[in-house]
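Why run this: before we spend reagent on co-expression, it is cheaper to look at a predicted model of the complex and decide which construct boundaries make sense. The entries below are exactly what would go into the expression plan.
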Amino acid sequence: MTQIAAARMVATPGLGERLVERGAMLLAARQPADAIALLERAAQLADAPGNTKGLLAEALLETGRIEQALDAADQAIALAPSDAPLLMLRSRIQRALKNSTRALDDAAAAVMVAPGGVETRRWFADCLSEISRHDEAIFLLGQLLEERPEDPQRAAWLGLALLRGDRYEAAEELLGHVAERGAETRGIRLLRVQFAIQHGQPQRAVELAQDALWNRGPDSPLYAALGHAQLLLGQRGEAALAYAEASRLAPADGYLAHIAAALSGGGGGARAGDDYVRQLFDRYAARFETSLLGLGYRVPGLVLRVLEELEPRIAAGESGLGDVLDLGCGTGLAGIMLRDAASGQLVGVDLSASMIEAARSKGLYDELHVAEVGAYLAQEERGYSCIVAADVFCYFGAIGETVAACGRHLLPGGRLIFTVESGACSGGWELAQSMRYRHSEAYIRQVLAEAGLVPEVFRQEVLRHERGEPVDGLLVVGRTA
Amino acid sequence: MNAPFDASALSCAIAELKAGRPLAAIPLLEEAVSKGDEPELASLNLGMALMDVGRITEATACLEALRSTLAHVPELHIRLGQLAAFRKDLDGARAGFQAALGLRADDVSAMAGLAGVELIEGRATAAAPWLHEALLHAPEDIGLRVRLGEVLLAQGQPGLAAEEAEACLAQDPGSGVAGVLRARALLAADPDAALDQLRAEAADEPFSAGRAAALATGLAACDDAGGALSQWYLADALNPADGDIVAGLALALHAARDWDQAAEALRRARLAKPGDPSCAAALAELHYRQHRLGEADRCYRDALSSFGRRPTILAGFALVLAGRGLQEEAWRIAEEGSVDPGLQALHLGGLAPYHPVVGTAKGLAALAFRLRDALAVDAAPLDRIASDPERRLRIGFLSAAFGKHPVGWLTVAGIEALPRDRFEVVLLSLRDLPGTIARRFHARADRWVDLSAVASDTALVERLRAEELDILVDLSGHGSGGRMMALRRRAAPVQIKWVGSQSGPTGVPEMDWMLADRWEIPEELAPFYTERALRLRDGYVCYAPPSYAPPVAPAPALTRGHVAFGCFNNLAKVTPEVLSAWARILAAVPGSRLAIRTHSLGDRATREDFALRAGALGLPLDRLDLLGPLPHAELLAAYGGIDISLDPFPYTGGLTVCESLWMGVPVLTLTGTSFAGRHALSHLSNVGLADWAVPSVDAYVTEAVRRASDPAALAELRAGLRDRVAASPLCDAPRFGESLALALRQAWREACARDA
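The model came back. C-alpha cells follow.
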C-alpha cells in the first residue's frame, strides 16, 4: 500500500467500525470468506474496534484456516481475557486442532465466566465427552435438560452423551423420543445405527438405517453402517449391495472400496489400499489389543518361539539378534517379544498414526515411523539382521515386490519372518470375504525363491480364532542364501 | 404561526439539499410548492431532488412544467437533458444540453452530457473535444476524466484509457467508476494479463474501494462470479457512498439470486445511482421473482416511463403480465420489446404455450422454426462422432434444478433407475440445491460437475465438450436459469430435450430429439417440432412421490355436502378464458366452491387484482378461496379439501397433476395440441384415467358438472387412487429406467449410423 493511500484511509472516520460491522453481517450470513477480506483490513487499522480479532478468528475457523484462527483468537483473548464467547471460540479452534485438553480448559473458563449459559455448558460437556469424562458430561447435560425438559434439542444432547458414555439402553430410549419429536439429525441417526451394531442389535441397526435412507436420502456412512449390520446378520448379498452403494457415494474412500470389492467377490486389487489399512487400524487402535487377545491371537508368540528354535542364545534369554525391523508393528505386540532379542536397534513401521502412538507408549522401540511398508523400504538405507512382518501380508495380494525389498535389506545370514493366511487359491492369492488376502503355499515358495531367500521354516499354524473358527495360516522364515 | 413556518420550508429544504439529504428535502419542497412560496424555485429544486432519489417519472413531470417559466435557468435544461438521456431520447438530451450551453458557455455538466450523447450514438471522436474542453474548466473532475477514458476505450485505445483510469484512482482511490474503467481497459488491452495485474493493484492498495471494484469487474469478466461478489462487498464496505459500487454489488447479488441481500442493495443503488436503468429493472424483476406481482408491475411501469421502452425492461414487464395470466397484454409488450427476429421468437416462444390463441402445436412451431432460422450455424463443430452402437454410454444431464423442483420430482426416480452397467450418468449442475432430492441426484451421479459459475455460453460449451459425453439431455430449457441457447453449439453427438420448460419445440438448431410419449407427441403432431420425437414406452416422466406425503383424506363432498374444485397451478396458466370456463362450472354446480392456491396469491396486491379480474369474468367471489403458498407437505395435505382438480389450459399441469392424483384427487383436463397442452393427458392416460381428458371448453364444463353430480363415484375413485397411481407406470421407476434406456440406445444407434 502506498503511504498516501494508507494515511487517507486511516483518517477516514468510521472505516474500522464499518468494515467490522459488515464483516460481522457476512459472517452471520455464512459467508466467512467474504467476511475475512473486510476483517483483515479492519485489523490493519490503528483504531480497529475491539471485536475485530475475535470475528476474524471465527471467520478463519469457518474457512478451515485453523492455525491462523488460533493466532487471531489468542490476540483477541489477550485483550479480553474474560470474554466467554471468545473463550468458546478458542475452545472450538483447539478442538479443530485436536488439542482436546486445551479445548476443555477454554470451555471450563467460559463456563466460569458465564455459568448460566446454555451453549457454554453444552460445549463444556461435549469437551468432557471428548476426553472420555462421560459421567461429568452426562451430569451437566442432565441438568440442562431438567431446566427445560420439553426441549428436544437438549434431550438429543444428553442422548448423545449417554451413547458416548456407553449407556446404550438409556440413550436409545431418549433418542427414540427425540426422533419422534422430529428433532433427530442425520448425524444422530448414524450414531444410533453404529451403537446398535456395537451393542449386538444388528436387526435394530438395519431398521434404523433403512428408515433414514428412505426418508432422508442416500448417504455413504449410513449405507456402510447398514452393510456392517447386515454382515452381522449373515445377509452377505444385501451387505454387498449396501457397501457397494457406500463406496460409490464416497469413491475416494479406499476402506469402503476394499470391503465392497471383497464382498462382491470381485477378487480385489493386488493389495488393500493404504486408506483401508490406515482407517481400519486408526479406528481400531484403542481396542486393538483386547480385541486381538480375545481372539486367541498367537502370532507374536509364534514369532518368538521360532526365533528361539533358530537362535539358541535367544532361548537362553540373551540378546544378540542385531538390528530388527518390525514391519506393520501395530501397537507393538511383537515388539514385546522382540525387544529383548534385539541387541541393536528395534525399528517399527506402521501406516496407522494411532497404532504408532500406542506402540510409542510402550517405550519398546528405538524408532517408530508412520509409513507404508513399501515406501519405507524404498527409502531405508540400513541393513537388518531380522525383519518381521507379523500379520501384515494378509493386507497384500501380490507380495513379491515387498518380499524382494525385504531380501535386499537383510544382512548376510539375516532372516525374514512372516505369517500369511493360507488357502488353496488358484492365482497364488485371493481376497477372502474376511476382507483379508489368502496366499497359497506354492506362491509363497515362488516369491521366496525370486527374492533369493531360502525357506528355513515353512509351517502350518492356527493364527487366531474368528467366531470360534480357527484361521489357518503359514509361519515362514526365509534366510539369505 | 403559519407564516414564519411557511417562509422557512423552502430554506429548510435548501439546507437539507446542501447537506446531501434530498429525501428529507422532498416533503419540505412539496410544502413550499403547495403554499406558493417561490413556487418556481421550489419546483425546480423538487424536480432535482426527485431525480436524485430515483423518482424519475415524477421528476420529469415536475421539471417539464417549468420549461416556459424557467427557460433562463441553465440547470433546468441540463436536468431535462439528463432525463431525456435516461429515456434514450437523444435529440431531447442534446437540445437540453445545448440550451444550457447557450445560457452558460462554460457549463461543464452540459459539455459532459453532450459527450455522453455522442458516445451513446457511437461517435467517440465527436465526444472527445467536449470532454477536453470541459476538463479545461474542471481539471479535477473525476467524472469527466472517466468519461474521457470511456471515449478512448471506444476509440480502440485501451492503453490510454487505462492510464486515464489510473490517474483518477491516484486522485480518488475510492472511485468505483474509475476502478471499473481501469478493469475494462486492461481487459481490452490484454485479457490474459489483466486479472493478475488487477489482483496485484488491489493487493498493493488494500483500502482502495476503486481497486476492489476494478478487481470485481475483472473477476466477473473471467467467469468468477463468487470472487467478484466478494470484491464488491469489500468495495462497498470501504466506500459505501459510491453509486457505481453499490450498483455493482446490487447487480452481482441479483445475478447470484440472493434476493434478500439484493433487495437491500438495489434500494440503496436506486438512491445512489438514480439514472441506472439496470438497477431499476433488477429491482422490478426481484419483486417478480419473489412473487410480488403487483409491486413488480408498478416498478416496471415506472422503469418504462423513466428509462424509455428498453428491450430488457419490456421483456421483464411481459413476464410479469404473463405471470398474472394476462397473456394477450404480455404478448404485445414482448413483441414491442424485441426487434431482432430471433430474440423476438425466443421471447414470444416463452409466452406462447400459455397464450389462449397461439398456444397450439402450430403456433409454437411457427415461433420455433423462426428461432431456428435466425440462429447462426456453429462455426466450430464438435469433433466427436458417434460410434460403437452397443457400448456403455456416457449420458450428461444439464439442469439448474437437481433438487426439490418439478424437474427433480419428475426425473430423479427415472435417472436413478437407468441401468448402471449400460449408462454412466454425468450430472451437470447449473445451480446447487439442498435437500433430499438433491442428495438422491448426487448419489446416482457417477460424476457430478458444478457449472454454476460458468457465465458465458462459449465457456459452458467448452466445459460440456470436455466431459466427452455421448448424449446430452437438457433439463432446463429456455426458462429461468436454463442454458438451452448455448446448445446450438453442439456439446455431444446426440442432444435431447427432456423435462424443464419442456412446453414445445425448442427451436435450437442442434437439438436432435424431444423426449416424449405417444400422448405428448402423437404421429400427427410430430411435424410441428424442430426436433424428432423420441417416444418412451409409457409416459415421458416418472413421478417420485415424496415420503412425507400425508395419507389420502376422505372425500370432502361427502362430509360438507358440496363439491370443492381446486387448482394449485401457477397463475400464469389461469388466463381469462380459463376463468370464464370456471365461472360457467360454478354457476352450474350450486353450492360448489373453487380453491385457487399458488405462490403469488400470497401477495395481497396480486390477490386483490386477481379477485377483481375473476369477479369481472363472472366468478362469484364468495365461493372462491384465493390462497397463498404452503410448505410442500402442507400443500399436499391441502388436497384433502378438494374433490376435483380443474386443470388450466392451454398450458396444463405437470407435477401438479401427479401430486393431485397421488393425493387422491382426480384431475379434469382440456387436451391441447402443444406439448404443454398435453402433460395432463399423458399422466392421466398412464394411470388409466384418460376419460378425464376432454377435447373442448364446452366438454370441459359439461364434464366438470357431470362428475360433480356424483359424489359417491368421486369418493370411490378417490379411495383407490393412490394405490392405482403407485401401481401404474407413472411411478414404476424400474420399468421407466428400462424404457429410458431403450430410447437413449435408439438415439445413439441412429447417431452411429448417421456418423458412420
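Residues 1-11 of chain A have pLDDT under 50 and may be disordered. The beta strands of chain A are 324-327, 346-350, 367-370, 384-389, 410-421, 429-431, 437-439, 453-466, 469-480. Bring this page to Monday's planning discussion.
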